[in-house]
Design a protein that fits this description.
Layout: H1 5-34, H2 41-66, H3 75-83, H4 86-105, E1 108-110, E2 117-119
Antiparallel strand pairs: 1-2
Helix pairs in contact: 1-2, 1-4, 2-3, 2-4
Keywords: Membrane, Transmembrane, Transmembrane helix
Amino acid sequence: MLLSNGVINTISVSAALISMILVLLLQWNIEKETKERKLSLFFHCINALVMLMFYSTSQLALYGSVSTYSDHGGFARVLLEALVFPIPFIAITYVLAAVTYRNFVRPYVKVKGSNLVVLKRRRRWRI
């Protein structure tokens, strides 16, 4: 059974996005527990590397287990597609997700033109 490149890329992108969400949740919990609101560059680098690792591992595993590397242009091409090609996608996706996520979890909204901040209303989910 041969999978097309599109299916393999879709599965790899899904794995990278799931890992990004999980690591962002982990970062938010760590910041909440330590009361440290400043974003650390180290944690962002780790998150980007984890995304690349999940993407590359899933892509190499799918190419290797479902079909042969020679069906997709050889091992060097598959390795290039798994490690180098996703870097622009991961960088753009992570920057957009980190900014959006930061604005979502921030407990206040700044008022433009003044030094006022307005606290967000917290939604509490009751079970």
